[in-house]
Amino acid sequence: MLSFKYRLKPSEEQIVILKEQINICRRMYNYLLDYSYEKRKNVNKTPTMYDLVYLIPPLKKDYPELKQIYAQALENVAERVHSGFVNFWARRMHKLKAGLPRFRREDDYNSITYRVRGYKIDKNTLTLSKIGVIPIILHRPIMGKIKRVTVMRDGEKWYVSFACETENIPIPNREKMVGIDLGLISLIATDTGELIDAPKCYRKAERRLKRLQRQLSKKKFKSKNWYKSKTRLAKLHKHVANQRKDVTGVISRDLVN
Questions:
Q1: d(CA 85, CA 29)
Q2: How far, in Å, CA of 9 to CA of 149, rounded?
Q3: How many Å apart are CA 153 and CA 22, to the nearest integer?
Q4: Which 8-state DSSP code applies to residue 47?
Q5: DSSP labels, 148-209
Q6: Is 6 in a helix, a strand, or coil?
Q7: Alpha-carbon distance 159 to 139, whole Å?
Q8: Do the beta carbons of residue 39 and residue 46 sit within 8 Å?
Q9: C-alpha Rg value of the chain to the nearest Å
Q10: Rounded Cα–Cα distance for residues 115 and 130 (Å)
Q11: How far apart are CA 161 and CA 156, in angstroms?
C-alpha cells in the first residue's frame, strides 16, 4: 500500500461545504463513540463496526443534515470509531501504552474519506460526490489501484491522499545493507564513516516562534486578532515541520537506495 498526496484548490463555496461536512462527520463520530461507551457500560461489550454502520440509516430520519454526506463517507466514520478500540486492544496486548478513543473537538477532526466509489479523477480535476469538481495539482502520476480517497484540511490548505495497492518494485544495483547510528552532534553516522549533520530547523526558527508566541499570549482569547496570530504561529510551525520532513525524506531515500 502506497499513499499519494496532492494539493487541492477548492473554491470558497466548496470550502464551506467541506468544512460543514467534516463537522457533521465529527459530530457523528462523537455520537457513535458515546453509543459505544454506553454499550460497554451496560452490556460489557463493544459494538462491532457493522453494529455502528446499521445505526446510520435510521439516524438520517432524525438528523436530515446527514443526507448531505456521501453514504460511504459516513460508514468510514463508524470504521474510525471501531478502529480506535481495535488499536487500543492491540497495544494493550503488546503491553504498550494505550488509551481509549476520545471525543473529538473541531481542531481534532480534519478529514473525510471515500471508499471504492464517490469520486472521479479526470486530468487535473477531482470530482467528489455531493461536493463537486475540485482542481487538483497532479505533480506525479498515481500508481496502482486506488482503495480509498481522503480529503484533508491542513491549516488553510486542502489536500487529497490516495491509498493505492501497488506491486513491489525492487531497487536495482543497491548495496545489501548499511549500518547507521543516531547521534547528538551528528544526526546520523554510517558504518562507512559518513556523517550527516542535523538540520536544526527548529533552532533556526526558534526566535521567530518565540516572538509569535508572545504576540499570541497578549491577544484576547478567541478574538479576531487572536485567531490571526494563532494562524501565523501555526504556519511557522508547519513550515519547520515541512523542512524537517524534507530532510528526513531525502536522507532515508538515499539510505534505502
A1: 13
A2: 16
A3: 9
A4: P
A5: EEEEEEETTEEEEEEEEE----PPTT--S---EEE-SSEEEEETTS-EEE---HHHHHHHHH
A6: strand
A7: 13
A8: yes
A9: 22
A10: 15
A11: 17
Dihedral of the CA atoms 251, 252, 255, 257 (nearest 10)?
A: -110
Q: Which three cell numbers stand for residue 119?
A: 469520486
pTM, 2 dp: 0.84
3-state secondary structure of 25: helix
Q: Number of helices and strands (H, E) in the chain?
A: 5, 10
Parallel/antiparallel/unpaired status of strands 125-128 and 119-122: antiparallel
Whether the CA torsion 62, 66, 70, 76 is positive or negative: it is: negative
For cell 473541531, the residue is 106
* pLDDT, tens digit, 9 for 90 and up, residues 42-88: 988 899 999 999 999 999 998 999 999 999 999 999 999 999 999 99
Strand partners, 136: 8
Q: Which of 199, 198, 209 minimizes the C-alpha distance to 237?
A: 209
Q: First CA to last CA across the chain, in angstroms?
A: 19
- Do the beta carbons of residue 119 and residue 76 sit within 8 Å? no
Cross-strand partners of 160? 6, 151
Cell of 182: 543516531
Q: How far apart are CA 52 and CA 37, in angstroms?
A: 12
Q: 157: which 3 cell numbers?
A: 490548505
Q: What is the pLDDT of residues 113-168, one digit of tens each?
A: 998 889 999 889 999 999 999 999 999 999 999 999 999 998 889 999 999 999 98
Q: Is 138 helix (H, G, I), strand (E, B) or coil?
A: coil
257 vs 253: CA distance, rounded Å: 6
